[in-house]
Structures are given as C-alpha cells and as structure tokens.
Write a structure and sequence with these properties.
5 helices; Jelly Rolls; elongated; 5-stranded antiparallel β-sheet; alpha+beta; single chain
Amino acid sequence: MKKFTFKWMLLVSMVCWAVVSTANATTFTNWYGDNDGCGGQATETGEVTFWDPVDPDLDVRGANDPSNTDRWTYKSELPLVWTHTFSEDDLQAINNLNDNTSVTLEIASAGLENYGEAKVYVCGNEIGGLTQNSHKNINTFDISNYLVNIIDSSDLQVYVRKLDGTGAFPTDNWILDYSKITFCDDKPLSVPEPSVLLLMSSGVLAFGTVSRRLKKRQK
C-alpha cells in the first residue's frame, strides 16, 4: 500500500510540473472619441470629404462625440488639447498590472497636408508627429514611461501643435477621429500556483524516499 502511495504521489507531481496554470496577457483600452472614420467622412484609401468650400464648417459629430472630434480643427484652435480620464476601476486594474506592461497611444486623424508638422505631446513632452496626407491616418506611440503619470493623476493630457510651414497654406486644418490608450500586461505564459509548488515538493520527497528504499533492497 505504501509503495503504491509513493508512486502515486510521484506521478501526480510529475503531471503538475508539466501542466502549470497559464496566465494570459491582460489588455484594456481607454478611448477619447470613437472609431467611425471621422463621422464616416474619411477612410484609409479615399480622400477625406470634409473639405467643402461651400460649407467649410462641416460638423458631423455624433451625440456622444467630444467637442473637438469629427469636425475641422482650425489654426485658431491650436494646440488641440484633450484629456483621457480614468475611473477608479481603471486605476485599480492598472495597479494590478506587472512590470512588463506596455502602454501605447493611438491617434486617428485625417485631412493633414504637408504645410507644417503636426507634433504630438503627452504631459508637455513631444513624443512624435502625425502622418500628413489627406487620407485617414493612424499613428501609434509608445507612452509606457507615462504610466506613473496616469496612476498619480487619474488622467493623461494629450495635445497636437501644428508648426507653421511654407507654401500656399502656412498652416493646415485637420480632423481628429479618436485617441486611444491601450494597456497590455505581458505576463509570462507559465506561472506555477502555490498549490502546484506544494505538489512538486511532495513529488521530490516521494522520489527521494522511493530511491532510498530501492537502494536498500539492492543491498
């Protein structure tokens, strides 16, 4: 009976060693605006149709769209500033992330032409620029270094500043479709649970006991 017990413990321990709990990466997002192609006016392949000499103030915002999305943004409104806010549940989830968490900022814009650079700033620091052509463009920036700012202040301020350029239009009008922050918690795929570790230890102990008994019998 004892011999069977030791072998059983050893078998269970070996199985638990091979089959440990798997933890999937946690991903969640925080949106400003919505991904509707600038109110249905812009695509990745077609020209933006916001530019209308008859109605240059065309505004196709939906009922839930922020005031500075899905409409033309003019020079007088720059820099265009918006803020991502985070609820208590968001902050709790963020605090539970591990050290490998990546944070990205994705900005969808349209209507920009090459009449001056459009620079993006987070917490007052320049992080890059927006692609400039008349189609809808999506630019992604790594803002992992600003994770602590989000935790400390419960929000994150982003703004775009258009630098004066040269040509027929010293500055350019453009549209903000949405701004999205994505948190990805890249946990390792295999994470042994405490109960698994206990079984592993039992298996090692059983293996040692069986080995000693076999040696005695051989003598």
